[in-house]
Amino acid sequence: MATAVKQVVVVGGGFAGVNLVKELSKNEQFHVTLVDKNNYNFFPPLIYQVSAGFLEPSNISYPFRKLFRSKKNVGFRMAQFLRVEPAENKIVTSNGDVHYDYLVFATGTQSNFFGLENVMKHAVPMKTINDAIELRNYLLQVAEKATITESEEERQKLLTIVVAGGGPSGVEISGILAEMRHSVVKKDYPELREKLWRLYLVDAGEHVLGPMSTKSQNYTQKSLEKLGVKVMLKTQVKDYVDNEVLLGDGNKIATATLIWTAGVIAVELPGIPKEVVGRGRRVMVDEFNKVQGTNNIYAIGDCSLQTTDKNFPGGHPQLAQVAIQQGVNLAKNLSNSLHNREWKPFSYKDKGSMAIIGRNKAVADIGKLHFNGLFAAGIWAVIHIWSLINYRNRIKTFFNWASAYLTRDLALRFIFRPDKRVED
Q1: From CA 66, how far away is CA 39, in angstroms rounded?
Q2: One digit per residue, pLDDT tens: the chain, 424 residues?
Q3: What is the value of pTM for the model shown?
């Protein structure tokens, strides 16, 4: 007797969701519907390079329909998730209801402004492709304004950039902007050659790259300072008013640009019981990533909080590798359910952490080993290129990087603002 095809609905097409769908697509006893508000997958670790003009958005993005066009048991619905109705086994979206046998949330995170309303309104986040394009446009427009203003005070505000957040994103955008200040700005903006560009990296912690080794933290801070970035630790951003960043110690930094990378919070999931929503709005799950108190709803990746892994009793770090491994593990377990096989609890295999700071400057912690400098930059480049979703993206990114490395220049400094003709 043939087994009925199980309907699996996956909300979110990031690392976790895409890897789950890829695995389930190999089993025709499942029909998978991927729901995402965008029609493409993108690679968040390289968002900052899009914002700085080193990569095109298409280098790190790929459309879902093309990605899964050969998979007969995979469908896609471009829609905004609105709520889940567990009693009816359905989700409500901006483009209609979708019913499921199994529902998997892989919705990731969004920028966390910690209740700072002025920061939310006026800072520039760096979380999505849209954010990256907006930041690139904004930085170029600010530079153009700085070339023509007659007020020295206004020019200094325009030429000062504050980056809030000392994690990998904050470190990497600070490093790439510092490199651009020396190699690109002097060529493209001769009017500003003699002007002082100022870069600040502000973080409330005691070290940059908090989760990484002390060696990586010290090397990173020294490298940033050599590039001309003023690193301000144990310092909180309290507000952003009238082009002034107000700091917790009472000091102020006059700037037209506050780049916000200081924190993330899980996307809200209406319909999920409030009692299972934990720290950072992450959904509490069991060892199999099933949402506590539910029968057939799962959460994987950054939106999930799993405390059953003995090596990570406080929950897993919100990293790409966790999301990928959880997606693959859940796919195997769902397949096991069709054959009454035992499910395998999730256990994260830590493959290390790394961050790039600038040309020939990076740090990598792999197991107990620490690497920095050119060798670490090589490891970083190979892993990031290989992690891109297909060969097209890998080839385009490699050639863009090679060109930028050899010429110390880049050709993607465009301000694109297409007319908005379709409502969100």
Answers
A1: 10
A2: 346 899 999 999 999 999 999 999 999 999 999 999 999 999 999 999 998 888 888 899 999 999 999 999 999 999 999 999 999 999 999 999 999 999 999 999 999 999 999 999 999 999 999 999 999 999 889 989 999 999 999 999 999 999 999 999 999 999 999 988 877 777 788 888 766 679 999 999 999 999 899 999 999 999 999 999 999 999 999 999 999 999 999 999 999 999 999 989 999 999 999 999 999 999 999 999 999 999 999 999 999 999 999 999 999 999 999 999 999 999 999 999 998 999 999 999 998 999 999 888 999 999 889 999 999 999 998 988 888 877 788 888 887 777 776 666 665 566 666 555 544 4
A3: 0.91
The count of structural domains within the chain is 2
What SS3 string covers 148-193? HCCCHHHHHHHCEEEEECCCHHHHHHHHHHHHHHHHCHHHHCHHHC
Calpha distance 303→281 (Å, rounded): 8
**What crossing angle do the helices spanning 168-183 and 214-226 adopt, rounded to 10°?**
30
275 part of the active site: no
Residues 153 and 271 in one domain: no
In a shared domain, residues 211 and 304: no
Domain that holds residue 297: 6-37+79-111+265-338
Question: Which of 23, 56, 172, 206 is an active site residue?
Answer: 172
Shared domain check, 256 and 375: yes
CA distance 214 to 223: 14
